[in-house]
Amino acid sequence: MWVFYLISLPLTLGMVILTLKYFAGPEVPRYVFLTVGYTWFCSISIISLVPADIWTTIIGQFNGGISFFWSWSYWSTFLLTWLVVPLIQGYEDAGDFTMKERLKTSIHVNLVFYLIVGSIGLFGLILLIIMDKIRIRDILGLAMACSNTFGLVTGAFLLGFGLSEIPKSIWRNADWTTRQKVLSHKIAKMAVKLDDAHKELSNTIVIAQATSKQMSKRDPLRPLMDVIDNMLVQMFKEDPSFKPQGGRLGENDMDYDTDEKSMATLRRHLRQAREEYYRCKSEYLTCVTQALELEDTIKNYERRNITGWKFVSSFRSERTGTLGPFLDTIELVWRCILWKQLKKVFAIILGCMSVAILLAEATLLLGGVDLSLFSVLIKSVGNEEVVVQVFAFVPLMYMCVCTYYSLFKVGMLMFYSLTPRQTSSVSLLMICSMVARYAPPISYNFLNLINLGVGKETIFEARMGNIDKAVPFFGQGFNRIYPLIMVIYTILVASNFFNRIISFFGNWKIFRLQTEADDVDGFDPSGLLILQKERMWLEQGRKVGEHVIPLARNFNGVSTDLESGDNDTDRRTVEMKVASDLSMEDIKGSSSKPSKDEVSRYAGSKEAMSSKYAAMREQKKLTSNMKPVENIAAAKVSLLDAGNSQSSNNSGVPSGLASKWASMKAGFQTFKTNIEAKKFLPSRQVEDVKLLV
Fold first, then answer.
1. Whose CB among 142, 264, 351, 528 lies 3.0–4.6 Å from 95's, allowing a Cys bridge?
2. What is the DSSP letter of 684?
3. Using the 8-state DSSP alphabet, how is residue 338 labeled?
4. CB of 9 within 8 A of CB of 49?
5. Which ranges of 215-337 would DSSP assign to H, the alpha helix?
6. Whole-model pTM over 0.90
7. CA 350 → CA 88, 173, 222, 344, 353, distances in Å?
8. Model pLDDT for residues 594-641, shown as the tens digit of each residue
9. Distances from the Cα of 65 to the Cαs of 2, 62, 74, 75, 208, in angstroms?
10. Which helix (H) or strand (E) element contains residue 451?
11. Which residues pair with 423 in a beta bridge?
């Protein structure tokens, strides 16, 4: 009985530790790491305990050990979710300078939240009592029913979205061309987000330095300002490659030195801007790396006979030694042939599991018929303990993955971020709270799909209680009705019903949940340009993402148009043509003149783009002489004095900046040639993209 559980616990612990190390940012404190890890471990322990509970119910043996572990896991997650994690989350989010003040801020924020929620709940309870819908002795049952109902209903909708989206996403990404389209859009969007985050961080640094410069050494708030100055110095030491650009002061940006709370707000703002910048940078690097690796895969597959079935990578040198050629061949077979087919097979298997779950959920209303595939499988293996628990664990884990996939998808749009090695403490705590909140309802939902026989009830079902019996207010048969609603919702999601409705009404696009399917209509030209420049820089021995900020700013308008839903191919072709013409004019000078037809066709767009480039160049001049600061004094003047030095250097452009611009623009004129020659895109797509004429 304990074999599967004892095996799963160490695996669960190892998975939690590896996942946390993969996502946690470098500045996550140890107590946050331990809190999140323990919460995740308790949540997954609930899921690992379900198969053992099913087995003891089948053999008709009550086990006190399972009852103890249920209580330990459930109440641990309950206390962590509603008390410990929110308190630590508020503490980490506070910008105060002492532990006492940060703790007071956290308690104040959480008290306000619970008072608001409690007031609403109390008002609803009084209303139900006045309407004679509930009696006072049923209040405890009502509280339990509300808690379970929230998790079950919202979890059912999250599960339905994941059951539809995960198999479709895996199947789409198995196609190389589709994956390239998706990545081109992602690169363009992330480049713009990275540029915006860079601007925000630069503005925040300017505000902090200006506040520090106007504050005297005898100011009572000077010690707090020194803490912020040390943050800046430490930031520049940790990342010497970061160069603030384009920082500016607003109307109310010099009001942070009024009191301790305003200084705490400035510190919090600086920390959030820094976290957002490095999060966007990490996501951008991930997208570019995936796109470059995909290009390598496509080129190696098309040239497999020429290279002798050996994989040639852009990120590493050729393998040497006796096993080198053999390993290169294995890598080519795996990445170019097997992995693509395995993705399709995996998508089909997950699609079948989704259908089986929907069928089981839809037939719960049929009391006398058991059409649950999982129930049939568990009953068919008889007394095979390990097999029974495996058959119970696999679909339950898939249901958890689908639910958490949807939860992260929705949460990352509004509340938090989940980025490899750059996830902040606040985001980790919020994510762990959500994971713990939905683990028991998912397990309870799965147990409803398993028909163990008349009169048989698992320990977990007995402890969670039956909503029908708890409070008649929710109506008889609630446990059997809400899954049918989830099935209907999943079918509508799979058929793109909601997307069609939202597209029909146009203005409702803000309510649409963005998926990868929205980026498969075509390639994003600005994303392709950025990717081409990244490959050129990589071949020159530079790092990925080293010069993306200036490039992203030049195509910011193009990416913004694409994000807003403008898919006019002719317009994008004109914009890319203008960019190419401008870059060729800068390189060739006056000896290379466009034709009169081109001048008349693109004159307006050229003037707009030229003015944009001129503004960007002037902005670069203001900050071209900035260097990473090495001490507090340098940090105070690194950006503020940039404008003053510009007046004495306005007669020329710094050579380093000029060479950088020349390097970026040198490849634009050969963009189409490189696409066709180096196979950046499949040859059949070249005529469709029409980037350069």
1. 264
2. G
3. I
4. no
5. 222-238, 260-302, 324-333
6. no
7. 37, 14, 60, 10, 5
8. 343 433 333 333 344 344 434 444 444 444 444 444 343 343 434 444
9. 10, 9, 14, 15, 57
10. none
11. 24
